[in-house]
Amino acid sequence: MNGKKAFKNVSLETRLNIFRFMAYILNEYKFPILIQTFDPDNVEDLALFFLIRVKWYIQSDRISSNSLARVFIDEGFKKSGYEIEIPNWRSIFRDGKMTFTSSKEVMLLQLADFAAFCLNRTQLIINREELSDLDITFLEICSDFPENYKNIQKGYLNL
Q1: How many other CB atoms are found less than 10 A from the CB of residue 100?
Q2: Tally of helices (H runs) and strands (E runs) in the chain
Q3: Distance set, CA 155 to CA 15, 43, 84, 131, 145 (Å)
Q4: pTM for the model
Q5: I need a labelling partner for 96 at 20 to 30 A (CA). Which of 6, 37, 71, 144 fits?
Q6: What are the residue boundaries of the structural domains of the chain, listed by start?
């Protein structure tokens, strides 16, 4: 959003269009987004709990017992390629595995990163006393997919 690193020489309008495209994908395909934040002190304990919540969501929402989820976890806590296998969960997760990977390797992680960024940035913006034109544009872009977030309370802001 701020035009740093790989986007250093990319115009704001082009960056906003990338955001619009990502929002379009989330809105069009209705990918469910489950939210959980972790801090370094509780990441291991809460990660398993969150994984159980994901399992419950998949079990309750999947179309058929033949549809298995692939679970990709953004690298960082473990290196890309590291897998965790829970054999008892093979009926939910393909091969009972969760794979740590890079968003460069699994592009859907970029959508997850985008959704998390939008949620975080939206929460920061709505607490401001005055909104800039860019704030309003950003909120409009993110307003395309609020129903994708499944486990948070939603509110609406009149722009």
Answers
A1: 18
A2: 4, 3
A3: 26, 28, 36, 17, 13
A4: 0.82
A5: 37
A6: 5-148
